[in-house]
Automatic annotation (TrEMBL):
One of its GO terms (molecular function) is zinc ion binding. Pfam families: ADH_N, ADH_zinc_N. Keywords: Metal-binding, Oxidoreductase, Zinc. Its cofactor is Zn(2+). Gene3D superfamilies: Medium-chain alcohol dehydrogenases, catalytic domain, NAD(P)-binding Rossmann-like Domain. The keyword Oxidoreductase applies. Belongs to the zinc-containing alcohol dehydrogenase family. Residues 24-352 form the Enoyl reductase (ER) domain. InterPro entries: ADH-like_C (IPR013149), ADH-like_N (IPR013154), ADH_Zn_CS (IPR002328), CAD-like (IPR047109), ER (IPR020843), GroES-like_sf (IPR011032), NAD(P)-bd_dom_sf (IPR036291). The keyword Oxidoreductase applies. One of its GO terms (biological process) is lignin biosynthetic process. This is Cinnamyl alcohol dehydrogenase 8.
Amino acid sequence: MAAKSCQDGHPAEAFGWAARDHSGVLSPFKFSRRATGEKDVAIKVLFCGICHSDLHMIKNEWGISSYPVVPGHEIVGQVTGVGSKVEKFKVGDKVGVGYMVGSCQSCDSCHDDLENYCPETIVTSGGKYHDGATTYGGFSDIMVADEHYVIRIPENLPLDAGAPLLCAGITVYSPLKYYGLDKPGMHVGVVGLGGLGHVAVKFAKAMGIKVTVISTSPKKKQEALEHLGAHSFLVSRDPDQMQAAMGTMDGIIDTVSTMHPLFPLIGLLKTQGKLVLVGAPEKPLELPVFPLITGRKIVGGSSIGGIKETQEMIDFAAKNNITADVEVIPMDYVNTALERLSKSDVRYRFVIDIGNTLKI
């Protein structure tokens, strides 16, 4: 009951859409947010992307959801108020909030600007804040967040198509940088051409990397090559194509969140190549060790990025005109959009026009 009383004590009236149970159906929801503290930024939400992890949360597919759930962690908007000790932002600034709104600020990860790996990371939706209150995400009219976790959005970055970069963008940018797969002339594969994959192609190309899209669907070839500008396309179910590409890639960013074999992907890597997993299948994948040993290859993982790196990614995106391919929808279409998302029927990210279509 303590968390409820904390929430009830919050003075800022808010309105959004929430899931009440594991059916995942969203409906209008009145709640409250905390007063703007001395280090807080108050934000009018204008757009919010829909991420696949929102689907997991509203249906409690990870077993960690506490209802009601207000989803949304690809949030962009405009600053409407700042606390007395806020230094980075002023009223009127365009800003964003991604997957996290808090961390301990004292562990090694936090000291290294890796708040995303802090054991006490507070997620934007469905987490517990320092005062015990549940965190509610961006499918709502307003946000209040500590300035440290707020990202400045450059003037030339469109807010609607820029919103998904706060999750999908940093999720692929960070491993490209950390694993050294950002050097011009390298050859990197991108597995899966969805919300993460299409952005990975854009970032890799902007870094001067040769990009091959790897997909189970031959139907995505034209999209990959002509629309996104990938250099080549591999059908992962075609043994001849896979055999011809063996040992040609410096690294692979694997964005797929369903069960799939890793052995063929490891075969595509050069000696000392790196396979980086950023998708999150619900069941363990089988990892063949022999090809790792014989080629000194690495299988690694990566999860979003720290605040400093997220700002770096957004600035890089603005400089290189990188945005997500989005379908902008009204708030009352959200349940249909979630159904379509579960069937991968979106090219490539839904973004809700909160500012114009969220009505009480």
